[in-house]
Amino acid sequence: MNPKKRALFIDRDGTILREPADEQIDSLEKFSFVPGAISGLRALTGLGFDFVLVSNQDGLGTESFPEAAFLPPHRLMMETLRGEGVTFDDELIDRTFASEGAPTRKPGTALLGRYTDGSYDLASSFVIGDRATDVELARNLGARAVLLQGPLTDTAALADPQLAAACALVARTWDEVVACVRGSLADGGRRAEVHRQTAETDVRVVLDLDRTGGSSVDTGLKFLDHMLWQLPHHAGVALQVAARGDLEVDEHHTMEDVGIVLGEAIGRALGSKAGIARYGYVLPMDESRALCLIDFGGRTDFEWDVTFRREYVGDVPTEMFRHFFQSLAVAARCNLHIAAAGENEHHKIEGVFKAFARALRMAVARTAFPYELPSSKGVI
Prior knowledge:
This protein is an alpha/beta fold. The chain is 31% helix and 23% strand. The strands form 4 sheets. It has a 6-stranded parallel sheet, sandwiched between helices. Strands 7-8-10-9 form a 4-stranded mixed sheet, covered by helices on one side.
């Protein structure tokens, strides 16, 4: 079954272009972009949304507003946006006057029939505009609205509980619009739950790359728990790890399988990897220093340059740390290079986990612009 598509229904005047006092952009002299609109729209590309322009243009094609006056500014807007990598999948322009009460005019949905036939996930779609009618359109579609405040914005209309419920955000800037739409993707986007059960272990990991809080770690190995807690603290993620293994035999299977499941969870949570920084850290830990290089490019390579002088740190054999990170790298399909030096073995390996957490934080961070795959190949 094909997943349902999502759309951004975007108003024009007052949202992309500044709206003049007479509310009609009928000459190039009246043409100018709303601050942040170009970069904001560019930042929303590559997120999996169809871009749909939805605009009321009162009396377009009549003597009071001839198409010859409308087209030059409109074409200039489209050409400018296209030059910045922003294209619209559809343009829906209603030409009626408000007095006509036409069902095609926002907030009516008659022009949007193809989007209401069940093929679009409207609950995960947005209407972006500067008028209460844009919020009403979102309510009528079953979508969410982002209301961009401008000179003609009437926030008093949100006193209506139904309109308020449809409005995800009243934004002051396009940066806030972008943050709201992107943030919605984290609601179920970059989260993964992986359960691996064998004759030797039972491991479950829940990872959310875009949230914090609610973390828990219990592997049966107290020092490994202490190390894994560095991830939510220093990577800024939510992490739950629960593992039961044959520790009565030794620590090998538990360490290995926790690494595998954590690595697989990272890979799944990254999804398409669109917009991630991809690369990521070196830090001091008292007298020790640790370096972690990571690349989520889809290929696996592992380098380890850490020497221990003790057989155990806490209840974990030091030889198992190399195997833990190698298992993680293979499961996550990443390049992972780790090096550390120092006098205190505890500090040394804790520095490694902290460096890994910081490298993870850097690499999975979504870059502001452009929102695309960080690869010249176009695939990772």
